[in-house]
Amino acid sequence: MEVLIQNNAEAGCLLGARIIARLVREMPDAVLGLATGRTPMQLYQELIRIHQNEGLDFSRVTTFNLDEYVGLPAAHEQSYRRFMHENLFRHINIDPQRTHVPDGTAADLQAECRDYERRIEGAGGIDLQLLGLGRNGHIGFNEPTGSLRSRTWIKILSEQTLKDNSAVFGDMAHMPRHAITMGVGTILEARRVLLLAYGPAKVRAVAEMIEGPLAAVCPASALQLHPRATIILDEAAAAALKYSDHYRWIDRHKLDWQKHGM
Which residues are catalytic? Predict the structure, then answer.
């Protein structure tokens, strides 16, 4: 893992946006795996700024989102399709036909999961997968104790995840209990992974992901197996890392072409 500790979440999101922008400039037809939630919001705002002010071209980019709630139509204000449209897609020149989000209202959810895998394969695989980190160590909606080789499937959300995400639904009673999500195995096939984690609520999950054992109780620990996983943290999220000084040392002594997570 490449661990990059930034002063704050804003600096982390700006760095993450630069990494993605560089990839899109170098590979105009890049396939991006995208995430939703509060963590990447500022990263998306920076990508919009780079597009509008510096001409970053998304016209040939293809995207696949990690997940979607079961039962929410695309127009629902809390659907992840709606989130992506409002917070990124409508502000850049991406072709809507190239944007993919699982259909949580599909009549046959199992068939939708299999089709999503086929669409990713048909696009040539994901060049960079953006991830957040749940406080219980989940990535996508892959909850603790799930398979580390799983594919896109229907997942039952944990009580912790329901508590963490329920505020936007008003209360837990109105929040979906299931989601379609890329599996851990699917995520690990991305050619590069970029994970963002900020704030004191993520301290334990960050420590278990980076320095803990490879274990299904922390699904994000599977990223230890990935050949090119970049983890961007703020100081608060990195507070429990035993080897934080080592990660900073490594970052300071990179060759020019290795710097800034590139």
Answer: 67, 136, 138, 143
